[in-house]
């Protein structure tokens, strides 16, 4: 019996998360610092809203990159999950308190403005040579991106991962959104749009 794309993704997700979890925590912290070096390559216009995320488990700690972008004039926002299907982005105001967002993450509270990011740093579990990604299975980013597109926006999507998260092939499903760019500890990679 052939596995469905969802089943294949589940198997890949378990395998790649095992690899990522096995990375030495000290190495992971040092590698995460190197992501900030890509800020100059991807620096948007000053004032551009960039969505980051608070790292959970063994994810890349994207905060050094977010702060480097902020130093270059970007405004930063973080995701807030409102329900099992809805996620919004709230602006991260320097000095404002962060609240527990669940999933061992933190973000701006309800008083922070809800904003639409123009550049999105997208967390992922696995990716392939075409820029296809596997997330955690909740579909939050796919829906959030679709919502921005429905508003007439075309956000710049940049995946965030370690090199060890690359797989040979991510199974395609119609709702999947391809990432034209992914940053790893090796640097910024760009993928062709038609693949």
UniProtKB/TrEMBL annotation:
Catalytic reaction(s) noted: (6S)-5-formyl-5,6,7,8-tetrahydrofolate + ATP = (6R)-5,10-methenyltetrahydrofolate + ADP + phosphate
Any one of the GO BP annotations: folic acid-containing compound biosynthetic process
Pfam families per UniProt: 5-FTHF_cyc-lig
Similarity-based family: Belongs to the 5-formyltetrahydrofolate cyclo-ligase family.
Cofactor: Mg(2+)
Name listed for the protein in its UniProt record: 5-formyltetrahydrofolate cyclo-ligase
Annotated source species: Nitratireductor aestuarii
Enzyme Commission identifier(s): 6.3.3.2
Organism phylogeny: Bacteria, Pseudomonadati, Pseudomonadota, Alphaproteobacteria, Hyphomicrobiales
Enzyme class: ligase
NCBIfam families listed in its UniProt record: MTHFS_bact
GO molecular function: 5-formyltetrahydrofolate cyclo-ligase activity; ATP binding; metal ion binding
Binding residues annotated for ATP, in chain numbering: 9-13, 133-141
Amino-acid positions noted as binding substrate in the UniProt annotation, renumbered to this chain: 59
Keywords: ATP-binding, Magnesium, Metal-binding, Nucleotide-binding
InterPro entries associated with the record: FTHF_cligase, FTHF_cligase-like_sf, NagB/RpiA_transferase-like
């Amino acid at each position: 019996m052939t596995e469905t794309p969802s089943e294949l993704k589940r198997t890949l997700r378990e395998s790649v998360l095992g690899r990522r979890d096995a990375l030495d925590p000290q190495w992971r912290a040092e590698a995460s610092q190197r992501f900030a070096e890509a800020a100059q390559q991807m620096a948007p216009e000053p004032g551009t809203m960039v969505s980051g995320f608070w790292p959970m488990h063994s994810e890349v700690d994207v905060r050094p990159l977010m702060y480097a972008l902020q130093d270059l004039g970007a405004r930063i926002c973080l995701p807030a999950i409102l329900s099992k299907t809805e996620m919004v982005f709230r602006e991260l105001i320097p000095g404002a308190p962060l609240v527990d967002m669940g999933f061992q993450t933190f973000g701006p509270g309800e008083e922070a403005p809800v904003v639409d990011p123009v550049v999105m740093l997208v967390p992922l579990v696995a990716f392939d040579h075409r820029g296809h990604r596997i997330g955690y299975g909740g579909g939050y980013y796919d829906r959030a991106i679709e919502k921005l597109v429905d508003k007439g926006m075309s956000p710049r999507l940049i995946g965030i991962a370690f090199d060890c998260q690359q797989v040979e092939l991510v199974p395609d499903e119609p709702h999947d959104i391809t990432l034209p760019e992914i940053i790893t500890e090796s640097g910024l990679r760009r993928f062709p749009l038609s693949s």
